Records
---
Amino acid sequence: MPFLRFGKIKMGIRATAIKLSSGNLAIFSPVPWTSDVEGTLKSLGGNVNFLIAPDYEHHMSLGPWKAKFPNAVVIAVEGLREKRAKQGNEDIIIDVTFGKDNKRQVKLPEELAADIEVEYFDAHANKEIVVLHREDKTLITADLMFNLPPNEQFSKAEVDATSGFWQRFAALAASINGNGQQRFLWHVLAKDKASFSESAKMVNTWSFNKIIVAHGDVIETGGKELYEQLFAWHL
């Protein structure tokens, strides 16, 4: 769906529904609840067993989803519950927490672990979880990388996703063309280069072709090569 960052930059936003081999769903980066969202979930069976709030930004709609699916296991990052409390959000228990010191020891529920891999970028500015869906060879991200302009996400909004000064400015750091995003990753998002690079190298051991980003168009093919290009300084 459409989304404006700072009320100016057309970023778009996306939730990803992962259909598990069990038949149930895992939702990565919940978006605002709408009738369209409800209809899509029903078409996929409607059984949401897992809610993944992947970082310090992509959790705003967690409350309504948890209310709809009270038995869903919530997976998030260290400090998110405390941040939500400071912001006045609903208090939601985090069932599985990824932290800097325990990220290699976290055990996912077997139903989820059967289908996905998870890496926690504790050194990312937003504390970022990324997911690999093994069977589909798909990398799923929130703010780890971007693919502006968000043509898909603004396709029904009757708004040009490419127009405006702020859009051109944002493209310098959030487009897959050129080397601006590579610099943005290195100089802005990576708060600890060694730890960030360790996570980047871990993800690079995964086999994937498609990348689903939260902001911008889905990268349907050639995702691994693009990843290696954007993260070259960390690899």
---
Amino acid sequence: MSKKVVYERFLWFERQAKAKRYPNATDLARHFEVSVKTAQRDIAFMRDRLGCPLAYDRQSKGYYYQDDAFILPLTLTVDDLTSLLLAKQLLSNVMRGSVDNDLSLAIEKISVILSRNGTDPNLIDDVVSIQFTEYSPVSEKTFQTALEGCVTKRQVRIVYQSPAHVSHTERTIEPYHLYNYLGTWYLVAFCHLRREIRNFHLRRIKQISLLDQKQIRKNKFDIKRHFASSFGLYKGPLRAMVTLRLNPSKVPWLEGLVWHQQQTKKVLKDGSQEITFPVSNYAEVVMEVLRHGSGVEVIKPKELRALVKIEAQKIANLY
């Protein structure tokens, strides 16, 4: 029997006991479809081995917690430990010094848990590293306020510096989703000024404050649909299906690379491969194609081929 399934029984029994529902072995056996003897062993293990403050109430014919502040000790498998270590490593790298106090505390708690389980929490630093060639630090206040707006579904007021304009603009937005792309944090939000969903670069937010007003358009936003036609940073309605051809010499270097979650692959007779996926914006596809030089060719659409050709010519003119 999986340890996770057993732990689920412990958690259920603890919740029932704390809620004063007075669960007993029969209730536990019926809920998880196990034998009464198995349920009795579970209860005994919780009381005698895990130290749960379980007491039996004869009148209610069930158990209750004598100390409601008690929490079941966390049990971690090897897989759990590995996942936590990697999460700690990834979180530390992605936030890059702008980890707010709450996130820092969470990482410290993970380290304490790992130490109690006999695992050196610093071991992962010796065997795994996650590096970003570029990153954009974000102030703790900006990140924390944006996150709180997403979680509490409240509107936020920001002063934003768009790269397309010199002046700052004050906007009221409805924050929906935070995501990190190549070391840079972005906030997906409905902008009242532009009357549409926008991606806000968190570092370009110069001032931010949480408002009392609740979001009024949250039920109209679907994060899965928003990312459905995305390629990299750019999101939005489907614009076109793109097909890229990887020449035979490039295939071994890019084999297994996921360009898009909805991509399809076709292997040609000469060993080249064609990758097809939907996009909402050509800008980042152009940059990605140019990054691979002559190893990747745009097959369609013609509009995208023309954009790559123009940019490649500009690069050639520089040299």
